[in-house]
Amino acid sequence: MDFSYFDLNSLDHDIFDGWGSYPEDLMQSELYDAIGSIAEKYFCAFQLGSTVEEVRYKKLISSMPGNSKGYSQMYKIDKTGIACLDLRKERTMKQVCTQETYDDFVQWIHRNRGQMDHLLLVLSIPIVYNDFDVLEKAIASTGLGEELKDDLQDHWRTEDHRHERLILLKLLLKEAIEGKFRITILSGDVHISCAGVIYDKNASKTSNAAIINSLISSAVVNIPPPPAVIQILELTGSEIEIVEKTADNEIKAGLYRLLGDKRQFRYFGGRNYLELIQNCSGGTNASWFVEGHEHEAFQLYIYPFKEIPTRDKTKITEKIHREIRLRTDDFKYIGNSITSLLTLPFSTISGWFS
């Protein structure tokens, strides 16, 4: 089974950057209401092949059943589920999706339990990515870079969305572990490509359902960022994040250095697309095809669901934990050209964080 992933899920690029992440009075103004209505019309026409009325009243076969107001779409092809959550329709400065959306999503998963081996979850904005908290605080304290504020507000790790992000990540881990299937998150929107992982430290010792990969491919027509910007992302994206820590467990997240990348960087700045190919054993090979590297693909293999009986602990390291290849960054693979950032205009640098 062959999937080529493109960012087709959200109103993101039918409007403009940061839609929904503006003050309420502005979002409800006549001007923004008119812009939103026009974008909604063409989103439904070009991305869903339908009309606003059909999509709004959930008349499409793929429409997610329930009470949510968003335009989330759900598909199932053989034993592979594809869930496209709408991250724009219900977005405000304080939320990404409403509780109704998450409830409807969980109900759809429960209806398909036992019928899915793998769920591909499309979140247009990456949920495993850099933390721009320092940049946000700098903008707030200095007033410089105000044009970036709405873009930063979009990200899951901004202060206003962190709690919702934690709830969603815990929900995904819970459903995958209990339902005994893999989840892979597909995202775009950030002008580069990379791959990350979220995992439950205890549960991942016996089941790889507790390991969720996050794959980012974006975007095939965008102008690639300067090498210096890739390097600053590298320097700020090297952490292994403790998403949640309790007395006896941890949920962690971070970005991989992908196999096949001789530079050992986590980010690819060239135009690219991502291809997912499912093999006969149920595993999925993710391949990024990047401009400038036409003769090779950067790859990540996602194993099919497997579970190890608790009593068979001798096989844990070999069969499960080899899927988690996170490591702290010692900077030895980062070039000294990071200093070239100092010679770039601020507007050039800021444009690549949107």
Map the helices and strands.
Layout: E1 2-5, H1 24-27, H2 30-46, H3 52-56, E2 73-77, E3 80-84, H4 99-111, E4 118-122, H5 133-142, H6 149-154, H7 162-179, E5 182-187, E6 194-200, E7 211-216, H8 227-236, E8 241-245, E9 250-255, E10 272-278, E11 284-290, E12 298-302, H9 316-319, H10 346-350
Parallel strand pairs: 3-4, 4-5, 5-7
Antiparallel strand pairs: 1-10, 2-3, 6-7, 6-9, 8-9, 10-11, 11-12
Tag the structure with descriptive keywords:
single chain, 354 residues, alpha+beta, 8-stranded mixed beta sheet, 4-stranded antiparallel beta sheet, 12 strands, globular, disordered N terminus
Structure description:
With 354 residues, the chain is α+β, with helices and mostly antiparallel strands. It has one domain (2-353): Purple Acid Phosphatase, chain A, domain 2, CATH 3.60.21. The chain contains ten helices and twelve strands. Helix 4 runs parallel beside helix 7. The longest helix has 18 residues, at 162-179. It is globular and about 60 Å long. Residues 1-12 and 327-354 have low confidence and may be disordered.
